[in-house]
Each structure stands twice: as structure tokens, then as C-alpha cells.
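Hi F.,

I've been meaning to write this up properly since the lab meeting, where we talked about keeping a consistent format for the predictions we share between groups. The idea is simple: the sequence comes first, exactly as it goes in, then the C-alpha cells exactly as they come out, then a line or two of notes. No screenshots and no reformatting. I'm using this chain as the first example so we have something concrete to point to.
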Amino acid sequence: MTEPATTSDFIRDIIRRDNEQGTYGGRVQTRFPPEPNGYLHIGHAKAITVDFGTAEEFGGTCNLRFDDTNPDTEETEFVESIVADIEWLGFRPTRVLHASDYFGQLYEWAEYLVSQGLAYVDDQDTETISAQRGGFGKSGVASPYRDRGVEENLDLLRRMKAGEFEEGSRVLRAKIDMAHENMALRDPVMYRIRHSHHFRTGGDWWIYPTYDWAHGQSDAIEGVTHSICTLEFDTHRPLYDWYLEHLPLPGDQPKQIEFARLELTHTVTSKRRLAKLVADGTVDGWDDPRMPTLSGLRRRGYPARAIRAFCTEIGTTRTNSRQNIEALESFVRRELNASAQRRMAVLRPLRLVIDNWPSGLDGTPLVEYFDVANNPENADDGTRQVAFSGELWIEADDFAEVPPPKFFRLSPGREVRLRGAYLVTATSVDKDADGNIAAVHATYDPETRGGDAPDGRKVKSTMHWVSAAHAVDITAALYERLFTAPVPGEATGEPLDDLNPDSREVVSGRAEAALADAAPGQVVQFERLGYFAADPQTHLLFHRTVGLRDEWAAIQRRQA
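Output, unedited:
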């Protein structure tokens, strides 16, 4: 799978125009600014691809800057996971920075706005301030503290910074326009009091900047030229610009550009809801393979290259839309088809006994070895030897004692091909005390080594198998959608109402011996079953990445 070297979209058009006009002297600098209050998810992958990819295309730079302005929810664990996810996705930040690096400068600028009569300390609580903001078409109500004098405001702000006041008792607000049609400009809060320990600055600060106050100013301090963010910040752009226009910046004023975020069907990307799934034990942590986090997708076996290609393919627009998860899976499947080696594994084992299989002089059943291609899509992957003997494991649903219509696999009297080995015909079954089939008996045709009959007769089914004497025990986790509804919460308003209680099934299977050598994280194709990723920590535990059937192609055919 190749990724386009250049792409045309409205973001790149803006940058090209700026470069032609010399707006930033031909310089391009972007940034990716996540809050370290959770793990990155698939939605962030698009933002990362846009931020880093755009800078790279124009020969610019892209920083990773942590928006660490809320000490109550942020942790070092999340910082480390974000750094690892970006690296895994294939990008390298020019610098790794933190909004907390600029707490001192942000505070100085806050005092500057106060001194210019453009900010004031409000003694009202958060609920009152929120209620006074008004609504669309309805003006807000000015705070009774809005006209405090400069000296009083500076004194109160400095005492807030010194920790003299209780948490929540005061805030610093910008003084803009309580009647503005854009509610983001109705005297937004710049600082709030938090008596909390910050994972980087410890107890140095008693007040913390809001996102809107820290964001644009951090961009300006770093020298960002194009501040690319998702569409929900569209209404915040006038505030972004207002702050920058009223401050003595060290350089050029950055330009904010918004694009539509990535939403997928059957997927929830709200950090709050994902955190609840983790906290409630619904999933086994942020890297559970059912989670849409990048660490979860990595553990499940999604190739970073496929995710990047998908994000590039859907492009950047100014209109929000929800992408089909089957489209992402199609990119994953395409990438793995080219790169993943093949192995045979049986997930619901049924014993197949070949009654006419020969034994040696000592009575021990003979063992044959077949050369099998590791990946038919890539001859450079070579071949491996697979053992074949008189007792095999086959999939239980590959045999039917009374076959239904259009069932072409093994049944009494029917001949099938065992992948790369022989043609066999089922003859009888053994049953346990409860009447369940315990083993299937068959005969093989020794003239059909390699799977083809010399007389040219044809069979309608080829089945995979594993030699019972050489098999290794494996555990496979089979995944369905974590959310049953295409748009979780559409019916009830709460996405977690659509959780799938049957999103994971764990089975014990048997596999060819070569699978024991699978490296942690390696993805292989279990022939006829799908792609499976070796767990990074638990040996011989495999997570189903995607099945073999291209559901996206089927959806496109139906829509055509």
C-alpha cells in the first residue's frame, strides 16, 4: 500500500497561499496539542496525520505540546502513552513541550490584560457565571464585578496566585462583550483556582489557565504558524484571535484552521466515556483490543501504515461526517494481506482420524512434511514445513453428520481436500456419552499428495488442519463490535447504553508448531479464519484483528 506524497485540500491551499504571499516568510510550523488526561484514540490519528503530515510536506516542523492545564485529570502515564502512540504511528515531534512550560509567561500576559482594563477578577461562582452568559439570541448579564478598577483586580489576581482564596471562589475573566453573538466572547474565564498537585509543577501554582487562554498564547510563544484543530473549535477562533491581537507577542500571530474530526460507526471516542469503561472494568484497560485507542488498536494488530493511509484517504473537510468502520478495516485487511505470513490454526477443534494412514515398522504412525508458502502474496517470505500425520485437528463446523443444503465441507461419504496435503473421505464418527461427536474417521488417497487427484477428479472444498501430534495449544480472543448501534447513543442519548455484552469470546485452539515462534505483536493470517495478532505479553494468546471477508466492498456494492 502506497501513501501519496502530496495531497490537495483546503488546509494545504491556505498554507500554499500564505507561502506565496510571504505571510510567515515561507515558514510552516504546526503542533499537536493533546491533553494528557487519557490515551489517544483513532480520532486523534487523523489530527496527528494532518498536523505532522502537513508540516512534513511543506518542509516545516511540528511540535508535540501537552495541554496540561487541568491538574485534576492529568497523569504522567498518559504523557508516556501519547509519546509512544505518536512514535508508533510513524511520526517524530520536532520538540516535546508542555503548556505548563509557559505558566509564567501566561500569567505575565494576564496581568498585562488586567493593566489594560481588558480582564477582571470575578467573585461569582461557576454556576452563576454560566447562567449569566445568556443564550443564542439572548444577551448575557454583566458581572457586578466587571467594572472593578485595575489596581483592585491586580491585587486580587496576585492573591489568587499566592493561594489566599478558596478553590472556586474567584476567577479571572477577559473583558470583551457580554452581548456578543458568539458566546465564546462573553467575558470568558482565563484562570480558575485549583488547590491541586500538578504532575509537573507540583504545588507551585494555585491558579491554572483555561484551554482558550493557554492555547493560542502557547502557539505564539513557540512560533506556530498554522494552528490546525478540529471543527468544534471553529467558534473559538474569534477568541483565539482576540487574545493574540491584544498581547505584545514575540513574533507573528498564528493562524487557526479547523477541519472535521474523525468519527467512526460503532465507535465512541469521548475520553470521559472511555475512561468510564476502564474504571468500571467493562474493558481490560486503555489498551483492550476492543477499545478505539491507538494502544488498543496496536494490540489488536492494526498496522500503523494502514491507519495513516486511511486518514489520508478520507482527507480533510469542513463538514462533519461519520466514516464506516468497515472502510478502516478494509485498509487494515489490505495491508495485512500483503505483509502477514500465513499459519494454520483450528479454533474449535474436532479430531480427524485417518484410518488407513500408514505406520512404521515399530507401529508408530508415519509423519510427512509439506512445504507451504508463508505468504502467497510475497515470494520473498519463502516457505515452511508443516507436519502431517494420521490424527489431525479440523474445525468442528467443517464437518456435518447430516449436511444442510449447499454444505460442501466434510460429511460421511464426501471427499474434500486438506490444504496442501491429501484428499480425504469421511467414513464414520465416534460419539461421547451425551451423543456429541468426539472424532471423525476418514480415509485418505495416497495418490493425491499435494491435494490434486491424478485422475482429475474435483472436490468442492479445501479445509485447513493441524497435526494433532505436533500442535501447540493457543488461546484466541474473537472480537465483535464494542457497540451494537452504528451511532452509539442515537436512540437513548447515552452511547454506553449500546454496549455489546458479547463483544469478546475467548476460545482454546490448536495450531501448527510454527505459530509458537510468533513474535510479540506479530500479525499472522490464520488460514480461512482471519488475521490475528500475538499478544505483546502473553505467549500464544492471539487477538483477532479483522476477518478475511471485505465487508466494506460488500457495502459499496450495495450502495452502487
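Notes:
The CA atoms of residues 401 and 434 lie 16 Å apart.
Residues 1-6 have pLDDT under 50 and may be disordered.

If this format works for you, I'll send the rest the same way.

G.
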